[in-house]
Amino acid sequence: MKVTVLGTGTSQGVPVIACNCEVCRSSDERDKRLRCSILVEAGNTTLVVDAGPDFRQQMLRNRVFNLDAVLLTHEHADHIFGLDDIRSFNWIRKAPLDIYCEKRVADDLKLIFKYAFAEHRYKGTPEMELLPVDGSALSINGIEVIPIRMYHHKLPVYGYRFGKFAYLTDFNRIEPEELLKLKGIEVLIICALRKAVHVSHLNLEEALKLIAQIAPQRSYLTHMSHEMGFHADLFKELPAGVEPAFDGMILEIE
Question: Cα–Cα distance between 190 and 171 in angstroms, integer?
Fold first, then answer.
């Protein structure tokens, strides 16, 4: 399985509009962070987790010519507002694209993208087949996916496990029974917003504590704001086996 990190930034991305901080002015490409997302490829199947406002740019940058499904973690704008751009995949596939999400998220999609679900749709609107995520294991074209329930402050969200790999973003609380679903993973991508405490995201200290508890062989930080500092500095600060992810990073996972 190959995992491509499409974006490692927060809802605002990095650089942030109108910000003149050193990180936002950095010339290091690893400090330029699109909205948080990953691409998962196994066999002939290609999946994306979350499709935020940078989805079009991410598909073009990584030369993605086929997409089988999108898994959504939750309904916030930085995770769903790129779904209008699935139209190209609709045209190629000549069929709706499978969108996996829980019912609450599906209900919001029907409101936000009302034009795509109208009885009399105009030609060219995105076509989505909304499929349920309810905590049970999923099989998507042979890829086994285990949803992991987490909490983004008070909002229930999902992370996902794919074999020996797990992707956990936009949360700051996970119950012990859900942690058991991560037993034996070898590679983890996990959010770490900044060094200061935040009400709805893990900070760096909390992320490192959870990494130690899960004990994967390799861990990568994502959903990092400009407040986290420079990629190069963070890389030097982190313990062995933990690295900041960067846009375009490719992970090969057995």
Answer: 9
Q: Pairing mode, if any, of strands 45-49 and 37-42?
A: antiparallel
- For the stretch 19-28, contacts whose Cβ atoms lie closer than 8 Å and that sit 24 or more positions apart, written own/partner, are 19/226, 21/226, 22/230, 23/226, 23/227, 23/228, 23/229, 23/230, 24/226, 26/230, 28/230, 28/231, 28/232
> 2-7 and 37-42: which strand pairing?
antiparallel
DSSP string across 100-118: EE-HHHHHHHHHHTHHHH-
Mean pLDDT, all residues of the chain = 97
Mean local confidence (pLDDT), 10-39: 98
Decide: helix, strand or coil at residue 241. coil
Residues in a beta bridge with 167:
160, 189
Q: What is the pLDDT of residues 139-163, one digit of tens each?
A: 999 899 999 999 999 999 999 999 9
Predicted TM-score (pTM) of this structure: 0.97
Domains of the chain in start order, with CATH, are 2-252 (3.60.15.10)
In whole angstroms, give the CA distance from residue 36 to residue 247.
9
